[in-house]
Write a structure and sequence with these properties.
Order of helices and strands: HHHHHHHH
Shape: rod-shaped
Strand content: under 5%
Radius of gyration: 29 Å
Number of domains: 1
Distance between the termini: 94 Å
Number of strands: 0
């Protein structure tokens, strides 16, 4: 009987029919969810490209700058860092090198000047960390709010279904089809938007933490290098 009623009333559950059966409030919910999805996809693509470039350039930058520093060529090391503008390591290292080179103009490098270089590295780390995290907090927001937006659409669908029962004085499928469409579509889209956003947010957070460790290690190694140069009296 259920399938017979569905066939005679023209009720269907294909996307076009479900969209047609939805009220404007539920359609607005779906549109909001699609905007959230588009935003999250844009952030995912942007951050994926940025992290990929940072990883590749850092792998090329590390051995190149290490060779220049072993030979004591600070100016050459800074030029190398400038060539790898997308590398998170290069952005941090160049800040420390420039600060140290500025103090090299004096006849003696004191502990305070080493500390100044250390602070320059810490500032650069904080700036690069903020750049790496740009946008990914929105993924967490979308991941946590999209299910509730979908749930709001579900509530609207249930209300629509009861309105259909009240209007047609019937509990058949045709009376509740619109409400069922709203509830199913908005719930499904809300989960479809939220799950990838949460998963990618966690993945990106781990990538940023790994980058932070690399920047911290590079800063420590650079400070050790400055201390060795200061102890050897290499200045000019």
């Amino acid at each position: 009987m259920l399938f017979q009623e569905s066939a005679t009333s023209g009720v269907g559950f294909d996307p076009r029919t479900m969209w047609g059966n939805m009220g404007w409030a539920a359609r607005l919910v779906v549109i909001v969810l699609f905007v959230m999805s588009a935003w999250s996809i844009g952030v995912m693509i942007d951050r994926a490209l940025a992290y990929s470039a940072a990883y590749k350039q850092s792998r090329q930058f590390a051995p190149a700058v290490a060779g220049a520093l072993r030979e004591g060529k600070l100016d050459e090391a800074i030029k190398i860092a400038d060539r790898y503008s997308k590398s998170h390591l290069a952005k941090v290292v160049v800040a420390g090198l420039q600060e140290f080179r500025a103090h090299q103009m004096s006849s003696e490098i004191s502990g305070e000047e080493i500390e100044a270089s250390k602070r320059a590295l810490e500032r650069a780390e904080a700036i690069v960390h903020a750049e790496l995290k740009r946008g990914i907090s929105s993924l967490a927001t979308i991941g946590s709010t999209a299910p509730f937006v979908g749930l709001f659409g579900t509530v609207l669908g249930i209300i629509h279904a009861f309105q259909g029962i009240s209007t047609e004085k019937s509990t058949g499928l045709g009376a509740v089809a619109g409400g069922i469409s709203e509830a199913l579509v908005t719930t499904a889209i809300g989960l479809f938007v939220a799950i990838p956003a949460v998963m990618v947010f966690n993945y990106f957070t781990n990538r940023v933490e790994a980058f932070d460790v690399e920047m911290g290690n590079s800063s420590s190694e650079l400070i050790d290098y400055f201390l060795k140069r200061s102890a050897k009296g290499v200045g000019k």
